[in-house]
Design brief:
Elements (H helix, E strand, L loop, with lengths): L16 H9 L9 H6 L5 H4 L5 E3 L3 H12 L25 E3 H8 L14 E6 L12 E8 L4 E7 L5 E6 L4 E6 L9 E3 L3 E17 L2 E7 L6 E5 L12 E7 L4 E6 L4 E3 L2 E3 L4 E6 L4 E6 L7 E17 L6 E6 L7 E6 L9 E7 L3 E7 L2 E7 L4 E6 L5 E15 L2 E3 L2 E3 L2 E4 L9 E6 L5 E9 L7 E2 L2 E2 L6 E2 L5 E9 L3 E6 L6 E8 L2 E6 L1 E2 L4 H6 L45 H9 L9 H6 L5 H4 L5 E3 L3 H12 L25 E3 H8 L14 E6 L12 E8 L4 E7 L5 E6 L4 E6 L9 E3 L3 E17 L2 E7 L6 E5 L12 E7 L4 E6 L4 E3 L2 E3 L4 E6 L4 E6 L7 E17 L6 E6 L7 E6 L9 E7 L3 E7 L2 E7 L4 E6 L5 E15 L2 E3 L2 E3 L2 E4 L9 E6 L5 E9 L7 E2 ...
Antiparallel strand pairs: 1-2, 3-9, 4-7, 4-9, 5-6, 5-9, 8-17, 9-10, 11-18, 12-17, 12-18, 13-16, 13-18, 14-15, 18-19, 20-25, 21-24, 21-25, 22-23, 22-25, 25-28, 26-27, 29-35, 29-38, 30-34, 30-36, 31-32, 31-35, 33-34, 36-37, 39-40, 41-47, 42-45, 42-47, 43-44, 43-47, 46-55, 47-48, 49-56, 50-55, ...
């Protein structure tokens, strides 16, 4: 949107204009933050503006800041307003582009102290490289120095295309040194992958350190928001050494195209380019191009498609001294300034060169050595000034210029001071506060201060007025400069002025050392003070420094605190325990939510607990809920507490793993009404498929029915590997039908990509509809948090038609491995498997496998590496009627229940079959037809009951069981009622409230209610007591059941009880139609009411239904709400675009974000479970089982299980890894060879010899084996997209790819038991460089050579 001409509303009478603007940006706690929206969107109602997830397009930060300036100075012409740069306003106003309400809460009412209204070098994302330093034959030392100002700042450092990762916690005003222990130095001219990325949860500054002998350089790394699209290179020249001028261009997490307009000759990728050439380079995410030349590269222009970071310097510059590597990160043209005052360096002799570069026609006025001058510069022109003695230089330009200074080296105070390079700040970048760190190796250091002459008397150094400094006026200006001596060795200092910004450079030296850099700005610039004069009153109180001996504290690792044995504090005297617990979870508005933390962390102060971003490890939701139960019932033995399931407590307490303060505000004090303390089918993420329905030659109709209970619920439906996407808005208690207009039906047995994903910003329920002629089925889709790792299949059987039993297993947004223990014969990927076989299938994200068989598949066990969704049914079941497709989503074993009461179906004749399946040894008691019985079940056993007439069935099991019912069809009231399939809820899943929708096509429908006999009188249907129902006691229990007739056609109803949970099934029929499903639970379960008895007092007041004619309202689209138009349906995270439905996981696996509709990014906390690590597998980041992984890359580099890497020899065969104990049943040996024609790998087991040749073909016993195949007991081969894998049980996985990459993965069972070049897998790097004979060596190459496989021929 173009910036509108906006008139700020008039301040209230008597309110100062500046103070009033301040209030806009500094609201009182709890006050709606609509003001900032209304400034830009005066015609949009506050109600719409405050809707969660609203995305509004904003102008760039520069335009916003200028607009705000204009508000403050309405009479000042636009052309006279300050010339702002993007970095000036980065923390001050929204980042470029999109602003959401989330941003307002997170940034506008920021956690950052006001000092971060600055364009200093602080940020939360950085990228850099280590350019070539002097002699490439000498190994250098690289590292990073991290500085923080906020307590418990979490920092992650990782290297692109490397296993290197370091996580630390930094405390305020400490510096922490992180050594880089993997090769990262760039050698020569070319494109490199080894960029270093730094990310943090609070602002930090980063300095890189690169040392070789005497050539040591420190380079300030600027945050990503400083990157730009245009740069000009500045390199030292006139050296006496034959070393190279150099620069590097780095792209962040996106592909990029870079154009370089050269000022010197180079050779790149074996092609020579002369000065004046244009060179175009394409970079992949996190790649860098380094350019080296003997020519002077100063003035080379860099232009990029997307923002880049640019470093410039010299591999080893020398003119008067020994040579030294110099390097600095340059500022993009957009950040250049116009006024500069350069003080003379406090070094005698002061031999320095100043480079001035223009990007457009520029008029430059200067004062140098007391003399004035003027120069007109053309684009790309370079002007040099030779500094010496105590000469100062002042510059004033009509357009932005870049100013860089390099000291050429010399002898100072009897010491040889080596060269250094500095970028010079302009006066608009001067700040009111700085922190300064001096290196340990420096013997003499100075703070070179440039300040307004009138302000020098109020400057404070380490909290005290500065007295020991000689000020020298800068000729022709109102500025003075002075050099403040700070002493020797490592030191920490502060410099600040209460109101006036000033500039600071730090320089230092010792023998063979020279150092120069900007001070670390932590204050306000002139622009900020003009915009917000009150900012000076909020100045950060910098600490009085304490000099430390060590240059860097030992980094602390972010240890997760263990859950202590906690005793809940005693309630205040006279306060009821239940009410007191209630208060813990239902705080008054504005009250800090520390209580929930204090329950689990009583020894951590509230101040620490309320710190933004604090992550505390929590047990699973089940363990928390049981713990809370125990608080409520301290005298009840643990084994007698309720057996909770994860879904019971999904909305009740934090999701699994990590809880942050953000979660407390977003979830614990949720927008959700209390009804969502339930394990009903409501959620915000779903996945399903449409299984095969009857005749595959007939095209079916598929669709989804969406139900919401909260206003303006935004829903996105998309299909994997398809362009189909639909975005709608659903209103409370409406159903919206979304037709699927692209082919999604699964045909036959195989792996399919066409899964359907549903995502929303508020809880919804989803039902899938699949119709072909008379074969129409509705299937309730459960949300993702219902998925699990173990299932048992239940399919109807005994049919008269030749159609197929079927089931499907679906994985969500992660790769997965699924094992199926078959109860019937199948054919998969042209291979036949008999009943009793184990079949393993690998699924990529959002893929599904459908299995079909003529055999009964009931009892087939499904086990998956990660949670999956499972559907089960029949393509077209028929016994007494025409055939009909039936399908239901199954519950995982973890969600099974123990007590079930099944009422007789209100259909006469009532011919139904009940399937009961166990997963472990189970004692089952039952009452059926008034008779009692008992049965001991073994794991996987299937028990059937034939229901008929008005017979009811009660079940009580010693362990969880699965209960599924299918109606076989028949003639009811003269109509042919087709079969249907239902999963039966156990009593622990009964709820206090339901909403019911009946399909339009149904002529007769019933609500089949099972409730405690004593509670039936208080049940209400559509808000009225139920009178027209006949209750039948369930024999031997305190329950009764009854069938409530609801009429014909489409209808919406509510059913609830004020306190007692009950069960609801809905069934309906018409001619050639049969339908059965659970009711939609929106209330509390027995578990919730035991845990929180007061919950019943907060019961949702369900609406009194109004019968609607139409089965589904016309869906409303987000556009109809007149939200600002979004051109691209994408989200942005960490400089990367996500398509709708795409998932991004943070580098430390603490946050998972999914791109929802309309550019809304939904992020949730996540954590890796015990035994898992955050890593990248198959190109996807996530939590994976902590396996040892040894990799040989296509270019012949080997990385051990413990992370040591080096080059591999190319000719011959070498033992790569083996189990040390040849007598072990787990023994194996991997031998390999990599050549340009491919990788050959041999894997030897006690019972098998497997060969994978250079064409990626698998051979065993002289015969080629086609995957997937079982090679021997426990050993399988599987084809993957770009290679093959060999697996032995779950302990060993060998992957050989067509690009010659070999990956060996072993699990924890092999820790410390491995031999060979891949190392011993003991998580210690120091012992990986051991030869076969036990002697130590210095390279991986020598280790590999010692493991030559002499029993293999190389010819």
């Amino acid at each position: 949107k173009k910036l509108p001409e906006i008139h700020l509303p008039t301040p209230p009478p008597g309110v100062d204009r500046g103070k009033w603007i301040y209030e806009i940006f500094h609201l009182k706690p709890g006050e709606p933050t609509t003001w900032i929206f209304k400034l830009f969107y005066p015609n949009i109602s506050p109600k719409d503006l405050l809707k969660p997830g609203v995305s509004l397009k904003m102008p760039s930060s520069v335009e916003i800041a200028l607009w705000l300036y204009k508000i403050m100075s309405p009479k000042t012409p636009t052309e006279q307003l300050p010339k702002l740069r993007p970095s000036n306003t980065f923390f001050l106003i929204p980042p470029f582009g999109v602003i959401t309400e989330s941003w307002i809460y997170k940034e506008a009412k920021a956690r950052l102290p006001s000092m971060f209204l600055t364009d200093g070098p602080f940020g939360m994302e950085f990228i850099t490289v280590f350019m070539s330093n002097s002699d490439p034959k000498v190994q250098g030392v690289q590292g990073l120095i991290i500085t923080a100002t906020i307590r418990d700042t979490r920092v992650t450092v990782w290297i692109n295309k490397s296993s290197f990762k370091k996580e630390i916690v930094v405390q305020p005003f400490d510096t922490v040194y992180i050594p880089i222990t993997t090769p990262v130095e760039l050698f020569g001219t070319g494109v490199f992958k080894s960029s270093v990325i730094v990310q943090s949860d609070k602002p930090i500054s980063v300095t890189s350190v690169h040392s070789k002998d005497r050539s040591a350089e420190r380079t300030m790394v600027y945050p990503i928001h400083y990157s730009g699209n245009e740069y000009y290179i500045a390199t030292p020249s006139g050296e006496k050494t034959p070393k190279m001028k150099e620069f590097s261009v780095i792209t962040y997490g996106y592909p990029n195209t870079v154009e370089m307009y050269l000022r010197g000759a180079i050779t790149l990728q074996n092609k020579k380019y002369h000065a004046g050439s244009k060179v175009t380079v394409t970079l992949q995410p996190f790649e860098a191009v380094q350019i080296q030349s003997m020519d002077d590269l100063t003035g080379t222009r860099i232009v990029s498609q997307k923002p880049v970071v640019v470093l410039s310097g010299h591999s080893c510059f020398s003119k008067k001294t020994g040579c030294k590597h110099v390097s600095k990160q340059l500022q993009p043209v957009s950040n250049w300034g116009t006024i500069f005052h350069l003080a003379a360096l406090p070094l005698q002799p002061n031999d320095a060169v100043v480079l001035i570069i223009s990007s457009q026609k520029t008029s430059l006025s200067f004062t140098f050595g007391g003399k004035q001058g003027r120069k007109d510069l053309v684009p790309g022109e370079v002007l040099k000034f030779q500094m010496s003695g105590r000469t100062a230089l002042s510059l004033k330009a009509s357009a932005g210029i870049q100013v860089v200074m390099y000291y050429i080296g010399g002898v100072v105070e009897g010491k040889e001071v080596l060269p250094f390079l500095m970028d010079i700040p302009d006066t608009d970048s001067f700040s009111t506060s700085y922190i300064i760190y001096t290196p340990e190796s420096v013997e003499t250091s100075y703070a070179l201060i440039t300040a307004k002459t009138s302000a020098t008397s109020q400057l404070k150094f380490d909290g005290q007025p500065i007295s020991r400094i000689q000020w020298t006026p800068v000729s022709g200006t109102d500025y003075s400069y002075g050099a403040l001596k700070m002493g020797r060795g490592y030191s920490f200092h502060t410099l600040y002025h209460p109101r006036v910004p000033f500039g600071v450079l730090t320089v230092g030296f010792a023998n063979n050392i020279g150092y120069g850099a900007r001070g670390l700005s932590v204050g306000f610039t002139e622009s900020h003070l003009k915009l917000f004069p009150w900012a000076a009153n909020e100045m950060l109180q910098l600490p009085i420094p304490v000099i430390k001996k060590l240059p860097v504290p030992v980094p602390t690792t972010p240890e997760i605190k263990k859950l202590p044995e906690i005793h809940l504090p005693t309630p205040p005297p006279g306060v009821d325990r239940g009410k007191w617990i209630y208060e813990i979870f239902h705080l008054k508005p504005g009250e800090p939510t520390t209580w929930i933390f204090k329950l689990f962390y009583p020894n951590i102060s509230p101040k620490d607990l309320l710190k933004p971003g604090v992550s505390l490890k929590m047990p699973s939701s089940v363990e928390i809920a049981l713990w809370l139960y125990k608080i409520m019932s301290p005298k009840t033995p643990t084994e007698q507490l309720p057996k909770l399931r994860p879904s019971n407590t999904f909305f009740l307490i934090p999701p699994f793993g990590v809880i942050t303060e953000s979660w407390i505000y977003k979830e614990a004090k949720a927008r959700l009404p209390s009804m969502f303390l339930t394990d009903g089918p409501f959620g915000m993420e779903f996945i399903t498929v449409f299984m095969s329905n009857s005749d595959p030659k007939v095209q079916g109709v598929q669709g989804l029915i969406i139900t919401a209970t909260i206003r303006d619920t935004r829903v996105t439906v998309w299909i994997n590997k398809s362009s189909f996407k639909k975005e709608i808005v659903v209103q409370p208690f409406d159903t919206v039908y979304i037709p699927i207009t692209t082919p999604v039906e699964l045909f036959g047995t195989g792996v399919f990509k066409s899964s359907v994903i549903v995502q929303s910003d508020k809880p919804i329920s989803v039902t899938s509809v699949h119709s072909k002629d008379r074969s129409a089925e509705r299937t309730m889709v459960y949300p993702i948090h219902y998925s699990g790792n173990e299932y048992y299949i239940a399919t109807p059987s005994g049919e008269k038609t030749p159609k197929m039993k079927e089931f499907s297993v679906i994985t969500y947004g992660y790769p997965n491995t699924v094992e199926m223990y078959l109860r019937g014969a199948i054919t998969l990927q042209n291979k036949k498997y008999h009943a009793g076989s184990k079949v393993t299938v690998t699924l990529q994200p959002f893929e599904a496998v459908q299995i079909q068989s003529m055999d009964d598949l009931t009892g087939t066990r499904i086990v998956s590496q990660k949670p999956v969704v499972v559907l089960s049914g029949h393509s077209c079941f028929s016994k007494k009627t025409g055939c009909k497709h039936v399908s239901k989503q199954l519950q995982p074993v973890s969600n099974w229940g123990t007590i079930f009461h099944l009422a007789a179906l209100p259909l006469q004749p009532n011919d139904a079959v009940v399937l009961i399946i166990s997963s472990q040894k189970t004692s089952l008691s039952f009452t059926f037809g008034g008779k009692q019985g008992r049965k001991d079940l073994v794991p996987g056993e299937v028990l059937k009951f034939q229901m008929s007439g008005r017979t009811a069935l009660s079940l009580k099991a010693s362990a969880g069981i699965q209960v599924v019912m299918y109606y076989i069809g028949g003639v009811v009231e003269g109509k042919e009622v087709l079969p249907f399939l239902m999963d039966i809820p156990d009593t622990d899943s009964f709820s206090t409230s339901y909403i019911i929708y009946t399909p339009e096509s149904v002529e007769t429908s019933y609500a089949l209610i099972t409730a405690k006999t004593s509670a039936t009188s208080q049940l209400k249907f559509d808000g009225q007591p139920i009178s027209r129902i006949q209750w039948t006691p369930v024999s031997g229990t305190d329950y009764s059941y009854g069938a409530l007739k609801m009429g014909r056609g489409y209808s919406f109803h509510t059913l609830y009880h004020p306190r007692v949970p009950f069960g609801v099934l809905t069934v309906g029929f018409a001619n050639n139609i049969g339908y059965g499903a659970r009711g939609l639970s929106v209330g509390f379960t027995e578990s919730h009411l035991k845990l929180f008895p007061w919950a019943a007092n907060e019961m949702l007041q369900l609406p009194i239904p109004v019968i609607k004619k139409l089965p589904v309202p016309v869906p409303t689209t987000p556009e109809s709400k007149k939200f600002p138009e979004m051109k691209e349906k994408k989200c942005m995270i960490r400089e990367r675009h996500l398509n709708v439905g795409e998932t991004s996981i943070s580098e430390d696996c603490t946050k998972k974000c999914i791109c929802m509709s309309n550019n809304v990014l939904k992020c949730d906390a996540m954590t890796c479970h015990k035994g898992e690590s955050c890593m990248v597998k198959n190109g996807k980041r996530g939590c994976f089982t902590s396996e040892g992984q040894c990799t040989i890359t296509p270019d012949g580099h080997l990385s051990t299980f413990d992370g040591v890497s080096g080059s591999m020899l190319s000719d011959g065969y070498y033992e790569i890894a083996s189990h040390c104990n040849r007598d072990s049943v787990d023994w194996f040996r991997v031998v390999g060879s990599i050549t340009s024609s491919g990788a050959a790998v041999y894997i030897i087991f006690p019972n098998a010899f497997v060969a994978i040749n250079r064409q990626n073909k698998v051979w065993m016993k002289g015969q080629q084996v086609k995957p997937p195949s079982i090679l021997a007991e426990g050993i399988t081969v599987t084809a993957i997209k770009d290679g093959v894998t060999i697996t032995k049980t779950s302990k060993l996985l060998v992957t050989v790819r067509t690009n010659r990459e070999i990956v060996i993965q072993v699990n924890q069972a092999f820790a410390k038991a491995m031999c060979g070049p891949c190392g011993n897998y003991n998580k210690v790097t120091t012992d990986d460089l051991i030869l076969r004979d036990g002697k130590k060596t210095d390279t991986i190459t020598k280790v590999i050579y010692s493991w030559k496989a002499n029993d293999f021929s190389c010819c």
